[in-house]
Fold this sequence. Notes:
Blueprint: E1 2-6, E2 9-13, H1 24-38, H2 51-70, H3 72-76, H4 85-110, H5 116-124, H6 141-162, H7 168-196, H8 200-219, H9 231-236, H10 244-260, E3 272-274, E4 279-281, H11 287-294, H12 301-314, H13 316-330
Antiparallel strand pairs: 1-2, 3-4
Helix pairs in contact: 2-4, 4-7, 6-7, 6-8, 6-10, 7-8
The protein binds 3-hydroxybutanoyl-coenzyme A.
Amino acid sequence: MITYRIQGHPVPVPEQAPPPQEGPEYEARLAEFEARIARGEKIEPTDWMPEEYRRQLIRMISQHAHSEIVGMLPEGKWIPHAPTLRRKLILIAKVQDEGGHGQLLYRAAETLGISREEMIEAFLAGKAKYSVVFNYPTPTWADVAAIGLLIDGAAVVNQLMLAQGSYGPYARAMKRICYEESFHIKQGYDAFVALATGTPAQRQMIQEAVNRWWYPALMLFGPPDRDSVHTPTLLRWRIKTKTNDQLRQEFVDQYAPMVLRLGLTIPDPNLRYDPETGHWRFSEPDWEEFWRVIKGDGPCNAERMAVRRRAHEEGRWVREALTAKAAQRTNGGGNGRYAVAGL
Ligand code: 3HC
């Protein structure tokens, strides 16, 4: 029995045998469910929901959580090499935040009846995805600045939309995460401007980082709508309220002028402002590269998965000790052979 909290009150989520997904009773319940969605109501874990709604949410939220945890790696490698103590402290805080976001999202996914162990085993077995953007290298400090501004900026465009979504625990997690992501963007912009207005070598470093991260930032929003197999369902039940292409356009409209105003260039010869539409025209990413990296053939896929598998293995003893301690407490204490000092 999974228990979760609404506003701090523990609410057990009954083990649900999947209800029938056809027939008159299902149709009536689906009609009421979709009326609730149309009224803008939040769906909570113990409410009736179509199994496809539950499945889509487990897929999206768990992959979002995996992305947050893997997303710690590209920047985390720069913590020992940050140029100043101030930058080091800021980066430590940011990377810790990403780990916390992952835990918050695993928790949100658990309210749908899947265990954290199942989600993490699927990820470690390569059966669950994480965002392609984290399979690119971070060869210089400027990549930390570019990630902070462009990748976290793209993430916030996406997550502000998700915070309007119909599933209560996910929408509430998004609101909490977006507060912290705004700090991530500010720290990225601060480091970005320091380099863009610095020495010629610093300007070149940040320009090379923009060239590396512009298209991965566009990829964060997913494939083009024409190839997005999940968007119609996600929009129907307001899990998402905008399409991948709409969000990508929002991101380019916000961030292209921000980068250009600093006197830097964007690696897109077709990029230009269209005064008739009020939007920026831009080139799409290389979708063959996008799908190739999703399938595991990116610059850092193997490295990222190896690090995550090693961390999971090295942390096994902690999980076992905590599980043993919890079992001891459940069985009324005693000097079970698993008594572990200090836990
Ligand atoms: N990276 C990896 N896989 C991707 C992807 C991406 N950027 N975009 C799409 N895919 C996968 C989908 O998961 C799906 O595969 P699946 O059926 O095995 O799950 C397939 O490609 C088809 O894509 P769709 O467009 O049909 O899928 P979605 O409608 O779900 O759109 C999405 C993809 C935009 C990632 C959407 O799932 C989403 O918004 N997810 C929640 C947010 C999220 O996961 N963000 C990841 C960034 S992490 C982050 O923001 C951390 C911050 O601190 C930087």
